[in-house]
Amino acid sequence: MEDSKLFYHRNLPHWHPPGRAIFLTWRLHGSLPQTVVNEMRILRHHLSAKNLERTPESRVLEFKRIFAKVDAILDSAKSGPLWLKQTGIANMIQQTLLERYANLYVLWSYVIMANHLHVLLKPKSPANIATITKNLKGFTAREANKLLARTGRRFWQDESFDHWARDRAELFRIVQYIENNPVKAGLVKNPADWPWSSAAERKRRGLAEIEVLT
Length: 214
Known about the structure:
Blueprint (H helix, E strand, L loop, with lengths): L6 E3 L3 E3 L6 E6 L6 H17 L5 H20 L11 H14 L4 E8 L3 E8 L5 H19 L13 E4 L3 H12 L1 H4 L13 H8 L9
Antiparallel strand pairs: 1-2, 3-5, 3-6, 4-5
């Protein structure tokens, strides 16, 4: 039977085994066209009804297809909220990840794009993903809205995508995926050239190998 502390389901499946690195993606509220949101809702309903008897792992694989499609749409977006393109907001989020809540997690990798954020981290006991997400999204939303002169407005989409790294090889594949995001989007030629990323942060610190940043 599934352990409710490890696996839960809202719009996407979430499975958080203790001691594992978790790949998280957050996007800005309203960053997807309504047609895509409607299509995702229909697909989620179809998969949920179809896969009631399947294991959590197999359902995660199905929902990863949704993630791949959404990520490609976010990367190519030219409209909708693109507030993370603003240097002040991107710098604030980067500093928050690296410093403000560093006591809650081991940070492996991150990238801040125009309308979404990818992070790979491992919670430090007794923190969990729910606590980490609440702190990071809550603080950055409040600070960003101050910079944007917005009051009482939603900044992040409530739902997050997450996936835990099954082994060390997958962990490094995820790091490469995250850091290659700006290259894939045509923004830079090399991952370390994107200033709001773990690749650039390692370069700033003079680190030649992939190491934890907190």
